[in-house]
Amino acid sequence: MKLPIYMDYNATTPMDPRVVEAMMPYMTTKFGNAASRNHSFGWEAEEGVEHAREQVAAAINASSKEIIWTSGATESNNIAIKGVANMYKDKGNHIISQVIEHKAVIDPCKYLEQNGFEVTFLPVDKHGMVSAEQVREAMTDKTILVSLMHGNNEIGSINPIKDIGRLCKEKGVLFHTDCCQTFAKIPIDVEDMGIDLLSASGHKIYGPKGVGALYVRRKKPRVRCEPIVHGGGHERGMRSGTMNVPGIVGMGKAAELCVQNQAEEIAKITRMRDRLKDGLFNRLDEIFLNGHPTQRIPNNLNISFLYVEGESLMMGFSDIAVSSGSACTSASLEPSYVLKALGLGDDLAHSSIRFSIGRFTTEEEIDYTIERVCVAVEKLREMSPLYEMAQEGIDLKTVQWAHH
Ligand SMILES: *Cc1c(COP(=O)(O)O)cnc(C)c1O
């Protein structure tokens, strides 16, 4: 087993060697500009791009004409949200989203708020989910767009996308979903789920960084987005600029590989995730799973280790790469806005760690991680007077702390 161990697959994934192999020719011999129409170098590049478009479309039951290439899911989200808002502003100025979206959805929504739009950020339940009923209640005759993510990147919960999509169809409101964590990895069907716009990224599916896709429905209804980047009119006018051919070819190959082996990969990763979860829960007390217990993406485990501070815990096993629930800034240690939105107190939010595994995770790595994490937690708790008091049966909520 090689150290350090990578358990941060929700942040990014290593490229699959088969993806690198597929990209290689497009960086060397097939280097043409996909927009060059009058020679074979251009045609060859275009062929690569169009094949990848089909591979990505096939992963979500879309037509290849409905796929727009972007620089990543951040850009896809921006085009979907700002593009729809600007195109349909005569119809209404109201957008519905939720508080635990990725910043790549929240920030474009906030930008629109400063520019005459109204955004309802729905609260989430204790598992980090919204319901179609909540969306229905928030809708007004001014609502033009609902943007709600599929799988959450921090806590892994999966929203009831199909119920929400069907509601949007019934109401004639466009529905966008950020599927970065689920695209090609769990079944998605844009027809069955009533999705009008969908964002995906290359580097979350064992493909390259700096490439993404946006699905834009062409029929029932035909959705239009005003561009953010102008110039040249590529990608049906929605995204100008010379295409990142190697990146696109890589994302297509990555999507195809995920889909080909989807069921087996879900089963394998779920088994490993459960092994990690059981290993930790069997040995440690006072630890809590964040996110929904079953409605979650297979590869994510977000756990709060009460009486232990997440950042200190991470330092206790520096040969394992994970994420903590606190964004460490120089001035303060702010707990994650996602965990806070679930109703977690600062103590639980500050003690959370996100483990995310993937295609190249081994059982050996899981077992090593269980041992390292348990030892680190036990060590820190040995030094914790609060943990000691709790062990003695003192209810910490009733303790009168001295103020100075
Ligand atoms: C990673 C991620 C993004 C950003 O994707 P990029 O391709 O890195 O811009 C957006 N949303 C979610 C849910 C993500 O996990």
Question: How would you describe the overall organization of this protein?
Answer:
This protein is α/β, with parallel strands linked by helices and 404 residues long. It has two domains: 5-11 and 262-391, Aspartate Aminotransferase, domain 1 (Alpha-Beta Complex); 17-260, Type I PLP-dependent aspartate aminotransferase-like (Major domain) (Aspartate Aminotransferase, domain 2). The protein is 38% helix and 15% strand. It is built from 13 helices and 15 strands. A seven-stranded mixed β-sheet has the order 2-8-7-6-5-3-4, sandwiched between helices. A four-stranded antiparallel β-sheet has the order 9-10-15-12. α6 links the parallel β5 (143-147) and β6 (174-178). α1 (17-23) runs antiparallel to α7, α3 (73-87) runs parallel beside α4 (103-113) and α5 (132-138) runs parallel beside α6 (161-171). Bound molecules: pyridoxal-5'-phosphate (PLP). Pyridoxal-5'-phosphate is lined by residues 72-74, 102, 104, 149, 153, 178, 180-181, 201, 204, 212.
